Amino acid sequence: MSRKRTHDHGRGTRRSGGHRRRTISVCFDTRGQTTQDFAIGIGIFLLAIAFVFSFLPSVITPFDSSVGGAETAQADRIADLLVHNLSTPNESANRINESDFDARYSNADLSTELGLRASDSGDAVYDHVNVTVETFQGEDVNTSTLSGGDVYDNQSAASAARIVTIEGDPAECDPACRLVVRVW
Where are the annotated segments for Disordered (predicted)? Predict the structure, then answer.
C-alpha cells in the first residue's frame, strides 16, 4: 500500500533556476538591543554595584569610632550617679559640692568608687573613666580639685555631660559649668 501524490505544486527534488530561497540580511547599524546584550549589561552593572557596596565599608572603617553603645550608656550612668551623689541637699539638683567632689572623685583610680570593672587584685582596670568639670568655653575649672580618674589624651571615648553649678564660688562657673564624664 503506497500513497501517491496527487498534487506536486513544484516541490520536486529538482529546483529550477527561478526558485531560490530567500535570504534575510541584517544590517547591524539599525538592529535593536537583543536579550543577550541586555543580560550582559545588567550583569556587569550588578557586579559593579556589588563591588562598591562591599568595598565601601572597608574605606570608612578606619574612621569609625571604637566606642559602642555600652560605653555611652556607662558614661551616662556615671554622670547621673555623680550629679546625684554630689548635689547638695535642699538646693538645686545640679548644684555640686566642691569639697565632696575632691574627697570622693579626684583620685586617679575611680574603679571602686564608681563600680567599674577591674581585676580582683586591682592591677588591671578594664574600664577607664575621666571626670572633669569644665566651663562652657572648654576650659577646665580648678583641675586640682574638680578632675579625677584616668588621664584623657583625646582618644576615642564615649562621653556624657551634665550642666552643673559649684557651691561656694559662683564666679568660677558663671553662669554654669559642664560635668563631663568620658569612658573608654
Answer: 1-21
Is the Cβ–Cβ distance between 131 and 110 less than 8 Å? yes
What does the alpha-carbon distance between residue 81 and residue 96 come to, in Å, rounded to a whole number? 12
Phi, psi of 55 (to 5 degrees): -90, -30
The dihedral formed by the CA atoms of 86, 88, 89 and 95, expressed in degrees to the nearest 10: -100
Residue 71: other Cβ atoms inside 10 A: 22
Q: CB within 8 A of 64, min separation 6: which ones?
A: none
Indicate the domain borders of the chain: 31-64, 69-183
CA angle 60, 63, 64 (to 5 degrees): 85
pTM value is 0.58
Write out pLDDT tens, residues 15-67.
555 667 777 766 666 666 788 888 999 999 999 999 998 888 777 766 656 77
